[in-house]
Amino acid sequence: TVAPRPLVVEDLRVRYGGVLAVDGVSFTVEPGRCLGIIGANGAGKTSTLKAVMGLVSRSCTGMKLGDVDLARVRARDVVRHGIGYVPEGRHVFGGLTVATNLELGAYSRRSGLRERQEEVYELFPVLAEMRRRLAGALSGGQQQMLAIGRALMSGPDLLILDEPSMGLSPKLVGQVLESLLALRERGLSVLLVEQNAWLTFEASDTCLVMENGTVALAGSAGELRHDERVRRIYLGL
Ligand code: ATP
What we know:
Elements: E1 7-16, E2 19-29, E3 34-39, H1 45-53, E4 58-59, E5 62-65, E6 68-69, H2 75-78, E7 83-86, H3 98-104, H4 113-123, H5 125-129, H6 140-152, E8 158-162, H7 170-185, E9 189-194, H8 197-203, E10 206-211, E11 214-220, H9 221-224, H10 228-233
Parallel strand pairs: 3-9, 3-10, 7-8, 8-9
Antiparallel strand pairs: 1-2, 1-4, 1-5, 5-6, 10-11
The structure holds adenosine-5'-triphosphate.
Adenosine-5'-triphosphate (ATP) binds next to strand 2 and helix 1.
């Protein structure tokens, strides 16, 4: 196992032509902790994650995972540096089995593949039961677990998730929460983007609220869930 390392992002900007989608965002994901980012559609959450993964061009004054300077790492090498990414919409390979989907997640790290696969099956027993089934036959919640499991196959110490609750029933959102808490128990750091504020507050230690590409509010999950504005706008209370 790798020594736990913080992810530190300073003054991040992402621009698409004339649109400044992320406008000076800074945050730290402490080792073994979960940072949640909530915000409305178009607030810049996905762009922030893509910027960390090197999938969009961006500028910043700092972006480091431990002593690795992510600003200088090419997108295809980010996973090798210990970051797992679960993109929005899951994107599992429906025509391939559960087991093969997991194996594909280990493309950057073949050694210890079987052990990591067993760990994923231990974390998500339902995937073990369905290992020979086609991924396309799984329910939405099971596909989300498979997408998370696949990202774990590279042996990350930081997992980045983009709206894992999207399109899931409340019961399955509960399952996603259980998975996130189980990952935390195992010492993984998590960066979670969500529109579901309830899930974010349950899963996270600290949270950011993004509005128009900036951080409108930041604090502990406990503080933010009691904030008047957050309750009204994001929890609908
Ligand atoms: P969502 O919940 O819809 O994913 P978000 O908070 O993740 O929203 P982003 O997807 O990061 O927001 O989008 C931020 C802004 O950037 C929006 O105004 C969006 O229209 C714009 N944007 C995103 N991707 C592109 C792109 N490839 N080209 C141009 N504009 C884009």
